[in-house]
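Q: Could you predict the 3D structure of tRNA-2-methylthio-N(6)-dimethylallyladenosine synthase?
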Amino acid sequence: MNVHDSERLSGLLESAGYARAGAGEEADVVVLNTCAVRENADNKLYGNLGHLAPRKAAHPGMQIAVGGCLAQKDKGEIVRRAPWVDVVFGTHNLGSLPALLERARHNAEAEVEILDSLEVFPSTLPTRRESAYAAWVSVSVGCNNTCTFCIVPALRGKEKDRRPGDILAEVEALVAEGVLEVTLLGQNVNAYGSEFGDRYAFGKLLRACGEIDGLERVRFTSPHPRDFTDDVIAAMAETPNVMPSLHMPLQSGSDDVLRRMRRSYRQERYLDIVRKVRSAMPEAAITTDIIVGFPGETDEDFEQTLHVVREARFSSAFTFQYSKRPGTPAADMDGQIPKRVVQERYERLIALQEDVSWSENKAQVGRVVDVLVAEGEGRKDGETRRLSGRAPDNRLVHFAPGDETPRPGDLVRVELTYAAPHHLVSDAPVRGLRRTRAGDAWEARQAGPSVPASRSVGLGMPSLGVPAPLPAVTSACAVD
Ligand code: SF4
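A: Sure. Here are the predicted structure tokens for tRNA-2-methylthio-N(6)-dimethylallyladenosine synthase:
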């Protein structure tokens, strides 16, 4: 979600006339889009700001802006600790960034603007999409849950749902630009519809995506097990362009820990969803997030997490050691677990998950899959002379291209010949290459000047004047 917010910030600035600084060029404006979910976000922010201070002193007129969750949390504290910052904006007013930069420049003083709630759905903002073939599409922002480890509700507010017509219009516009794959985004994506009173809205949205011509792959992240109704499983299984992959955060396998986390499902409910998904889509890859060492977690609780990992057979898992987030209920709970114990459990979990991932991947060898060729997914592609992409179940595949080199966005059909725990390899001859509109779009981007930010497809929430926005993370977070 934060990556997508950064795309919006880039789009906004490009629409306001800014251009991306080239490699090695001194930027006139630096925007830090912060996250408060991961540990040490504030240390990283103030460390980065410390590095920027002498750069700014040597570059008169340079402006520094800080946005995102940490800005929402720290508000005016940022300019007190780093008075060389020009603009601070929060999670609810991304759209104000160009105006705030302008005002700070004009008044020669810092502008801090933090709103308490969202004014305009951020998808109404221009967006500078990073990829020509795959795109994020927000269906909702905020979350109505109150998981005790999570800072998201405090910083992103209550769930706001976008109208289905607005979402579909955005998807159609993206497809018209060449995009083949969309990932529907929401903090609690399958609760979509709760704001307008339709608990089946998410399944209907998936089916509606199935009707869009030219849209080949639909994914979503992240669903909450509590809201995972059977109609969503049916919609996934019966809609050909909805991919057989599911990322569903577990967090803990222990009912007691789940209760203290204020996660309203229990182990049995979670495993029941996994069984139903596997029965409807035997080829589905299921991934998860797990937190180790939540306050009060006993050895027995942790064994329950291992039990679910063995039963659910996740193809991969994002694993996190619990760490306190100031402002969350869990930060003040009794029973904080010593680091040594958390570390030991964490290593056991990783070892088990590696075994499961590897054996699940080995079972893929011999299968023939269609890989959507990606850009920047294979760090060793240069050395190995392979290209990389994603199979329908979202597994990473490195393959040896044939005589004709596919472009990012093209589709190749390959046989999987080797499995490692975190990726698959195909060294067999490519069985088919389909050059796609997405590949054409990628090629056009390489040839031409940078693609202008696409104006948002109208819509979203009713606008109350100035557009407003949200913040950012880069890697996976232990939240939904
Ligand atoms: S962990 Fe997910 S469901 Fe829980 S409060 Fe945070 S965003 Fe909401």
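Q: Anything worth pointing out?
A: The first helix runs from residue 2 to 15.
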